[in-house]
Amino acid sequence: MNNRGISWLIGGAQGTGIERGASIFFTAIAMAGYYVFGKREYHSNIMGEHSYYYVRFDSKPVYSHIEKYNILASYDAETIFRHSLEGLPGSAIIYDTGYLNVKTKDVPTLDKRVREDIHGRFNNNFVSISDIIEEAKSYGIKSFPINYKEILNKVALKTGEKLSELTRMNNVIAVSASLAILKFDLAILKKAIDRVFKGRKVVVKLNSLVAEETYEMVNSLGYINEFNIKISPIENKSKRLLINGNQAIALGKLVGGCRFQTYYPITPATDESAYLEEHEILDVENYDPVKSEREILKGAGSIVVVETEDEIAAITMALGASLAGARASTSTSGPGFSLMVEGLGFAGMNEIPVVITHYQRGGPSTGMPTRTEQGDLRFVLHASHGEFPRIVIASGDISECFYDAIRCFNYAEKYQLPVIHLVDRFLAHSVETIEPFDIKSVRIDRGIIFDENDLKKLKEGGEKYKRFIFNSTGISPRIFLGTKNAVFWITGDEHDELGHITEDPVIRDKMMEKRMKKIEIAEREIPLEEKVNHFFPSYNSDLTIVSWGSTKGVILDLIDELSKEGYKIEFLQIRLMSPFPSNYVEKVLFNKKWICVENNYSGQLAGLIREKTGLKPNNLIVKYNGRPISLDEIYIAVKSILEGKSSYKVVLRGGA
Amino acid sequence: MNNRGISWLIGGAQGTGIERGASIFFTAIAMAGYYVFGKREYHSNIMGEHSYYYVRFDSKPVYSHIEKYNILASYDAETIFRHSLEGLPGSAIIYDTGYLNVKTKDVPTLDKRVREDIHGRFNNNFVSISDIIEEAKSYGIKSFPINYKEILNKVALKTGEKLSELTRMNNVIAVSASLAILKFDLAILKKAIDRVFKGRKVVVKLNSLVAEETYEMVNSLGYINEFNIKISPIENKSKRLLINGNQAIALGKLVGGCRFQTYYPITPATDESAYLEEHEILDVENYDPVKSEREILKGAGSIVVVETEDEIAAITMALGASLAGARASTSTSGPGFSLMVEGLGFAGMNEIPVVITHYQRGGPSTGMPTRTEQGDLRFVLHASHGEFPRIVIASGDISECFYDAIRCFNYAEKYQLPVIHLVDRFLAHSVETIEPFDIKSVRIDRGIIFDENDLKKLKEGGEKYKRFIFNSTGISPRIFLGTKNAVFWITGDEHDELGHITEDPVIRDKMMEKRMKKIEIAEREIPLEEKVNHFFPSYNSDLTIVSWGSTKGVILDLIDELSKEGYKIEFLQIRLMSPFPSNYVEKVLFNKKWICVENNYSGQLAGLIREKTGLKPNNLIVKYNGRPISLDEIYIAVKSILEGKSSYKVVLRGGA
Amino acid sequence: MELKLTDYRTEVHVNWCPGCGDYGILSSIQQALFELKLDPSNVAIFSGIGCSAKTPHYINAYGVHTLHGRALPYAIGAKLANPELTVLVILGDGDGLGIGAGHFVNAGRRNVDLTVILYDNGVYGLTKGQASPTLKLGLKTKSLPKPNINQAINPILLAFASGYTFIARGYAYDVPYLKYLIKEAINHKGSALVHVLQPCPVYNDINTKEWYTPRLYKLEQEGYECIITNETTEEEYLRKISLMIQKANEWGNRIPLGIFYRDLRYTTYEERIEARIPSYRLNPPAKQKISDPFGKPITYIDKILEEFLI
Amino acid sequence: MELKLTDYRTEVHVNWCPGCGDYGILSSIQQALFELKLDPSNVAIFSGIGCSAKTPHYINAYGVHTLHGRALPYAIGAKLANPELTVLVILGDGDGLGIGAGHFVNAGRRNVDLTVILYDNGVYGLTKGQASPTLKLGLKTKSLPKPNINQAINPILLAFASGYTFIARGYAYDVPYLKYLIKEAINHKGSALVHVLQPCPVYNDINTKEWYTPRLYKLEQEGYECIITNETTEEEYLRKISLMIQKANEWGNRIPLGIFYRDLRYTTYEERIEARIPSYRLNPPAKQKISDPFGKPITYIDKILEEFLI
Ligand SMILES: Cc1ncc(C[n+]2csc(CCOP(=O)(O)OP(=O)(O)O)c2C)c(N)n1
Ligand SMILES: Cc1ncc(C[n+]2csc(CCOP(=O)(O)OP(=O)(O)O)c2C)c(N)n1
Ligand code: SF4
Ligand code: SF4
Ligand SMILES: [Mg+2]
Ligand SMILES: [Mg+2]
Fold first, then answer.
1. I want to staple C179 with a disulfide (CB 3.0 to 4.6 A). Which of B410, C28, C65, D112 is the partner?
2. A338 CA → ligand 6 middle, Å
3. Which residues pair with B242 in a beta bridge?
């Protein structure tokens, strides 16, 4: 294995099993004991447009991708047209010989720009796959032609299935061929197939057969010796989770006690809600303090997931559920968040806990719905008119997604305010092998809530329950709609302690201060480790990288490489965007050489840091073409910064 | 006249003619040659809650209010309960003797907080108007009791009108009595009545009669000698405009060529749209270049004003009209803007000119709909997901409202982007005597637009019209829907030059850069005087005040006072909030002692300045109780800063 | 302790204009709650923004005064999280059928068990009398500079097309009858609409008390009844619906009040959730325990995690 | 130069799934424009977001692909600014009746002269098959994990309740008939709805071609006609409307296509504006000159300013 592990890419038309194929691949690899990182790129389209899945794996953890492949697994022509030249020296293209005569003009989904690029390379408007393969060879890329039809024919013969029914397994041929040239254990591949198809016997059998036949074909063609990488299983002591961001957040919500989720379909947030809906019936533990035993109550819990008519209904319905006492949340992406803005302000004004999981995607407007970006930081920080407290936390990887999802509800209920969990398309759809969740370490804190007995006592003491009472803690006890022995009122208008409308300037000031002070309380109480991850702190680092969100992985991989070259790199990953940990950040960055890395155009975190501390980075690395930052491109960018050869702003442009 | 001119306040229940009464008063005063400043305070309610109108006037321009009155003109009890103690020494309370026995408990609209305050003062829960009057006297405030009913009786006798019909003229009694004790010319008052009632004969006659009778009554009671201020007419060479912000903006839009306005009713923006609707039929000049003559074409122009079903429709409908070729705009306030966020992003993405006039009001959420605030700066700067260029301009006074309204359309069309005109409730509803608009100085610039002939040429040259063509100027020529010889496409998705969807990373980068660069072009091209007003620039000022928007007036009045005391105060009013004039601001503030004054909680401009320049103010003066900043309170605050006695953040809390 | 009518009132000063129809609606609601002997602590009243929307502050029950047009989704969220609540939703005509029309329509599809009371004064009261979606084409109220340029929405028809399973119309000044309708609506299982004709003496000088009084009559006085059940034949259904539409369209010399439509064929949304989640009513979202006494989460996901463990 | 059918096509690759009903709708629109001989430069086609919403990119006419649910207000703005445009509005069923329901309803009230084409596939196509507002209660398409929990909106009824003055239903695979309906809709003066039954073979495996084919029939084959004019008597009106509602409700073994409703009684919004602003059509907002050759504004406000001069 080279020092960046193995990169594998499978491409094809949307709707032809790219994801399935990739799942089989990375599941097999993970089963063999490797650390896996996988990411998906696809168009906003249901069928036909080009889609690909990238996997990198290694015997040590992998957090990012590179723009190059060791193996390109294809089963259509477009993948080859688009990706052929991304091969590392000595890499392999696996392809179906059936496509050799296909020309660019035969592929209507090839963007004009890509087509022209190819034609330009050949100075010719009729470029075929065989031309492309020849070109690749000239760059030292090996080609592994396979007759996919022959394999399927054999399977058809053996099983009696119709050939036309089998073509949808072309993806498995590409996967199997990849594993075959890696000399990968066929038995593990078959186990992976079984797992991915959840044991559906007929399907598993057919796919396994395809795998076998492909292995045989690759063997018979002697390809095994032509490719010099071998992947043998390695032993693991403990199990890992193979999971993506959507799923980790959904699980976090379940564990965190979210019992009401609303959503309006939107990429890339929907998958989370769909996952929750599939798991709407929950098992819960019942702790018997006498016997000190835990019992599992099957189906005793549930989460109600509601598909609303729009995002305005999604946020306001979640607020209604929260007022009734449920931990409630909604998940969305840019356009949806833009519609939730008014509801967000209402939550702030009325101190209603609610969690909005916001999956950033390529903007502005409809933008690039299936591509990634970190373009919404400033927006979520300032969304809605007027001033009110909010907490914004940005997760950097899939583990953080899980724990932060839980934390969000604690913040929301403890400080009685809206919490925005900021993630992105890249995290949502990337898959990683991570350490199992340490659920034992998790705590639930619902803040101050009065029940009917508290209210009875209050009443007996001759006192009225006041939803917005001014008290010494700064946070008024909540009660839920329907709690006996009291009622409350709330209104989006400025209000008195009872929740009735007031325009009195004195009460207004007090109420405004009560609300805004909560953000100071939160800033004081939230522990540092929930605010930032400070990696390799040092007083004499060569460089401090500051970043937020999903760039964490690639930066860690980068630092790993640079440290091998002797560089001392410090990394400040900011997690809590509001309240902003200004003091700590200022302390760390003062008088340092530091840069900011962001997946957006304008360097929003850099602006935020300057607003809060006055400090400005030495360089800004940004990327805004809808693709995540790759290890190879950031390596080059940071290297040139380290060598003093860079301009202030560096734009990364990698990705297909 | 004392050195802060004369302050007059009229109060009463909403719906009983407070505004009408005030109009008569300030119209009369303005007719007498004085400069007038008037502001309104009222509840979000149709009838019954307390409302008041404040007027300050002087022989030199007045831009602000003080928290005190010289004359309190009342015709109900609540006004006296609430405002009695705000009198300057020697000031006057005019009131109806009919209310003398009214007690606090008889006034249900008195807020609990105010009621308790009064009871606290008297240590008694049964305080009557006579108690209050006595108390006021003890502070040196004079009382002018008048039997309103007697006056109305006389009028009833003279005219045969029913007394019950006449009570709605109590406001005019209060106004007339005020003018009477000021020894003001009754003839001018009558002229003002005529003007305010637009010559509606019967009403004018009745009101004039009330005025006469009031004058007589005041005379007969000998009050004229008891009050030592006299207001005599002064000569003016030239006419002035007596106008409020809503109206100035509406007029700016008409002159600026706005031909399509959408709105959904919301305080305090609606008045502008209502005004436009009233003036939907327009006269236009036709210039005959041969004769070099201008002819007025009656009713040849028009503005279509559409009441939409919500603010989402308001912004998107305006965008539709803009695409068709009309200068289009919409006006709204906080909650409405919160709903326009998605449409705003679409305009940015598709380079559609549109103007949003945003009237800030007390927030967050529904907040204090009829109160003022500058709480939305950050919000409008960052509203909507993703990154796109926008221009934000904040007007500081009523004249600026007019010119900026026009400018907004020029910016919008020249740079093809959404422009937000940021004003507030205070500007909208304040009235001032200002210099007549210099319409001759105004220019209209619609940017680059191709017509059907341009398109024909293009076509003949074998070229396709591309809506988003990459060209050297950075700005692609627009065409309107329906223009012959071409078509275009647009989409909220990322798009190619033709406007078709693309997810190609290379085109994406180019298109993103094309859009974002426009903000740099605008920043370069917009002249400094449109970006800032820099008053009294100096290298050795005692203090530089930085502010934005409607605080301009009070700061100018403040500086006037402080300069008389020998202080050298510089004032940087920032007008262009995006693109932010960072360089100039940095140059001005570097190494200066400077403070920021804002009508919000968190000092949003201060944050913005720090983000853009790294500089932090020495002090921050804020106010967030929904009331505008008064001259007396800012005087105290700045004085104590000048004397080094102030803490960093100063909160102003004045206003009833 | 027996509850009194006054127990449904608050101390908040009612600041509607003199003569406003809202007073009658307020009384009707208070009396309905009183007569149904509902515990104020089990009633939640939602409203949007407008004069009408101030109602909850005047009623001693949980009062949630939300955003313009959004009362319905708030209410649905609360009801689904705690299906034991009695939920009332107050809509202004601008609020519910202008900015909130999308929620109005889509709420009909769900048939959540709640009662919508629509205050129809033909104008946007709190913003000073602009035409609301129920003002008829060409009318010029005193608050309008020009005659209304839009056709009117018929709330009865719109509710029918949207799926409301109970549709009635009351009149703000006929408190006993309106109270009766509200009680029926509360007792109905599913989404119920009570459309209330509400004079706004300040801005709407057309649809005034004087205008309404001679025109109003009660459907049941004509023997009208429209109840649809699973037993109703196709033919009967069509006959009933035709008559209903006819009555809904009637707006001239005679204007009907009463219950236009009751559809008993549909399950409520809560029942549909229960069909998916058997424990839903026993342990609804708002009532679920989510942690043990030490704050440890009690949701058991080990089974789910197997899908991911490798 | 005579326009050919191909002149209404673009070079953009159509990326709907094989077998999608959208192809048929696209052809129908192109053919309708062609047969009406409309200049592409005078046609503006608006859409929201969804598979359906990609349509404008495939038609050679001004194409405005807007935001999810918002096509109608964009279209209305353009039409009112330039009433000479022929305006088509493409709505998905989620787009138009879910998130866009408020605009759908309130557009009906205006009767702006435009044609709405509603693509009804029962699902949210582009987001992978969630239930749309037209999917019937209890149905479980292959894309749904559980049966649909909401009742369906009936677009014909909703359009009627909202005030659309032309309401028809077509079928995506019957191109000649759909083309005919679209032409009629475009020729209708006022807001016209063409509801199109559109199979989505990828996510909706219930309302497929196979399912529709045996059920569909054409209203006019039964002699059905429903035209309302100012001459229509009250009685006739009720009879016609009853039948219309009956037909609109028909959804089982037989499903009607055709023109359900034409109402010729209402002026268009443009006519109503013209009644206020006589110069409106001569000099509509989009066509007005606003400055002279030197860039000086030409709006003359001296008269207005007198109100303020003192
Ligand atoms: C998003 C938003 N837009 C506009 C407003 C301003 N607004 C307040 S009340 C109101 C109209 C209320 O009319 P209606 O719903 O008919 O209630 P009514 O006052 O007549 O009872 C409007 C538009 C608002 N509060 N929020
Ligand atoms: C505000 C907003 N919310 C959500 C989305 C995501 N979205 C894209 S397409 C779509 C549904 C489209 O369904 P439909 O209108 O039925 O059209 P179809 O794809 O079925 O033609 C949704 C919800 C969006 N683009 N914008
Ligand atoms: S404005 Fe009309 S609806 Fe509002 S309180 Fe007054 S009378 Fe009632
Ligand atoms: S998902 Fe359905 S509606 Fe969308 S293109 Fe495919 S078949 Fe057509
Ligand atoms: Mg109303
Ligand atoms: Mg659909």
1. C28
2. 22
3. B433
Domain residue ranges of chain D, discontinuous segments joined by +:
5-276
SS3 content of chain B, % helix, strand, coil (to 5): 45, 25, 35
C5-276, what's its fold? Rossmann fold (3.40.50)
- Per residue in B150-199, pLDDT (tens digit) is 999 999 999 999 999 999 999 999 999 999 999 999 999 999 999 999 98
**pLDDT at position A2:** 59
Q: Where are the beta strands (DSSP E) in A61-215?
A: 69-74, 87-96, 142-146
Contact call for C42 and A482, based on CB within 8 A: yes
Nearest neighbour of C70 by CB, restricted to A241, A242, A316: A316
**What tens digit of pLDDT does each residue of B59-88 get?**
999 999 999 999 999 999 999 999 999 999
Tell me which residue of B263, B557, B243, B630 sits closest to B429, measured CA to CA: B243
Three-state DSSP at A570 gives: strand
| Pocket test residue of C126, C132, C197, C204 for ligand 1, highest count of atoms within 8 A of CB | C126
Kindly provide the ipTM of the predicted complex, given to two decimals.
0.98
- The C-alpha atoms of residue A270 and residue A336 are separated, in whole angstroms, by 11
| C12 contacts A283? CB cut-off 8 A | no
Tokens representing B332 are 């709204």
Please report which confidence band the pLDDT of residue D220 belongs to, taking 50, 70 and 90 as the band edges.
very high
Nearest in space to C126 (alpha carbons), one of B277, A492, A494, B267: B267
Give the model's pLDDT for residue A237: 77
pLDDT value of residue A511: 98
Cα–Cα distance measured from residue A580 to residue A392, given in angstroms and rounded to the nearest whole number:
9
Would you call B241 helix, strand, or coil by DSSP? strand
Residue with tokens 């129908």: D28
- Domains of chain B, start order: 6-225 (3.40.920.10), 243-441 (3.40.50.970), 452-525 (no CATH), 531-651 (3.40.50.920)
What is the pLDDT averaged over residues A29-58? 96
Residue B182 half-sphere exposure, CB side, CA atoms within 13 Å?
A: 31
D144 touches chain C (CB under 8 A): no
Buried b (16+ CB within 10 A) or exposed e, B604-630: bbbbbbbbbbbbbbebbbbbbbbbbbb
Closest residue to D69, CB basis, from A47, A274, A310: A310
Q: Which atom of ligand 3 is nearest to the CA of C52?
A: 3
Chain D residue at shortest CA distance from C97:
D102
Which residues 182-241 of chain B have a CB within 8 Å of chain D? 239-241
The segments of chain B whose pLDDT lies below 50 read: none
pLDDT reading at A638 higher than 60: yes
Q: Which residues of B touch A656 (CB under 8 A)?
A: 505
Window from A315-319, B286-290, B489-493, C238-242 with minimum mean pLDDT: B286-290
At residue B482, the pLDDT reads 98
Whether residue C124 contacts residue D125, with contact meaning beta carbons closer than 8 Å, is answered with no
E-strand ranges in A401-551 read 418-424, 431-434, 489-491, 532-535, 543-548
- Residue C191 Cβ contacting ligand 3 at under 6 Å: no
Task: Tell me the H-state helices in B485-602.
Answer: 505-525, 528-531, 552-564, 582-589
Give a three-class secondary structure readout of B281-347: EEEEEEEECCCCEEEEEEEEEECEEEECCCHHHHHHHHHHHHHHCCEEEEEEEHHHHHHHHHHHHHH
SS3 A652: strand
Q: Is the minimum distance from the CB of B654 to ligand 1 under 6 angstroms?
A: no
Rg over alpha carbons for chain D, rounded to the nearest Å, is 21
- Is the distance from CB of D213 to CB of D171 less than 8 angstroms? no
CA angle D117, D119, D123 (to 5 degrees): 155
| Distance of CA C123 from the midpoint of ligand 3 (Å) | 9
